From TrEMBL:
<dbReference type="GO" id="GO:0006879">
    <property type="term" value="P:intracellular iron ion homeostasis"/>
</dbReference>
<dbReference type="GO" id="GO:0005634">
    <property type="term" value="C:nucleus"/>
</dbReference>
<dbReference type="InterPro" id="IPR002109">
    <property type="entry name" value="Glutaredoxin"/>
</dbReference>
<dbReference type="GO" id="GO:0051536">
    <property type="term" value="F:iron-sulfur cluster binding"/>
</dbReference>
<dbReference type="GO" id="GO:0005829">
    <property type="term" value="C:cytosol"/>
</dbReference>
<keyword id="KW-0479">Metal-binding</keyword>
<dbReference type="InterPro" id="IPR013766">
    <property type="entry name" value="Thioredoxin_domain"/>
</dbReference>
<dbReference type="Pfam" id="PF00085">
    <property type="entry name" value="Thioredoxin"/>
</dbReference>
<dbReference type="InterPro" id="IPR033658">
    <property type="entry name" value="GRX_PICOT-like"/>
</dbReference>
<keyword id="KW-0411">Iron-sulfur</keyword>
<feature type="domain" description="Thioredoxin">
    <location>
        <begin position="9"/>
        <end position="91"/>
    </location>
</feature>
<keyword id="KW-0408">Iron</keyword>
<dbReference type="InterPro" id="IPR004480">
    <property type="entry name" value="Monothiol_GRX-rel"/>
</dbReference>
<protein>
    <submittedName>
        <fullName>CSON010725 protein</fullName>
    </submittedName>
</protein>
<feature type="domain" description="Glutaredoxin">
    <location>
        <begin position="126"/>
        <end position="190"/>
    </location>
</feature>
<dbReference type="InterPro" id="IPR036249">
    <property type="entry name" value="Thioredoxin-like_sf"/>
</dbReference>
<dbReference type="Pfam" id="PF00462">
    <property type="entry name" value="Glutaredoxin"/>
</dbReference>
Length: 211
């Protein structure tokens, strides 16, 4: 994925609006900035859910002043347009740790996260990962799915992905399914709302949910 070079304010505002953004304020004359940029480039290959960008601090001085960037390199972390953390100076270890925490991955947690995901998936025979819960769906797709599930009379449990970023991002990779809601039966992914609708139309939903 690499590090996106920011050229103007509009591009910057669009970039930091992503859910997880690591933004380097740099200058070509500062060798330390190259060290941070190299580390960010490596991390970008490991973290598809994190955006990495570089802002030329002197050329875009208004942005730098707005974030009180007084020296380079400075790294500022954004979530949905809001600055949530920063690193002043060269600290690759801290950069790596903060990036991993933002996307819900701790240093040695890949195996632990997978174990947790497996446990959640198998918490109930029918398990739904969605935005909100069965009583308060927080998106139209989730609301429609819950309506269908309630009509089947099948017992199921839900997990609110908005309550845990590590589960929200980790499950996409674990199941190779990029969207929500996700429905699992006996620990196996059935699919999202479109698949459930298709099974319903074909008269196969009840059988599928009963496993």
């Amino acid at each position: 994925m690499g590090v996106e070079k920011i050229g103007n304010t509009d591009q910057y505002m669009k970039a930091i609006s992503d859910p997880n953004v690591c933004c380097l304020f740099s200058a070509d004359w500062a060798e330390q900035c190259g060290q941070i940029k190299d580390a960010m480039s490596t991390l970008s290959d490991q973290m598809p859910h994190m955006k990495f960008v570089e802002v030329p601090a002197e050329e875009l001085s208004d942005i730098s002043l707005n974030h009180q960037v007084e020296a380079v390199p400075t790294v500022i972390f954004f979530q949905n347009g809001k600055a949530v953390d920063r690193i002043d100076g060269v600290d690759v270890a801290s950069l790596t740790l903060k990036c991993k925490k933002m996307v819900g991955v701790v240093e040695d947690s890949k195996g632990k996260l997978e174990e947790r995901l497996k446990a959640l998936i198998n918490k109930s025979k029918v398990m739904i990962f969605m935005k909100g819960d069965r009583n308060t769906p927080r998106c139209g797709f989730s609301k429609t799915l819950i309506g269908i599930m309630n009509d089947t009379g099948v017992t199921y449990e839900t997990f609110d992905i908005l309550s845990d970023e590590s589960v929200r991002q980790g499950l996409k990779t674990y199941s190779d399914w990029p969207t929500y809601p996700q429905v699992y039966v006996n620990g196996e992914l059935i699919g999202g709302l479109d698949i459930i609708k298709e099974l319903l139309q074909n008269g196969e939903l009840q059988t599928t949910l009963n496993g």
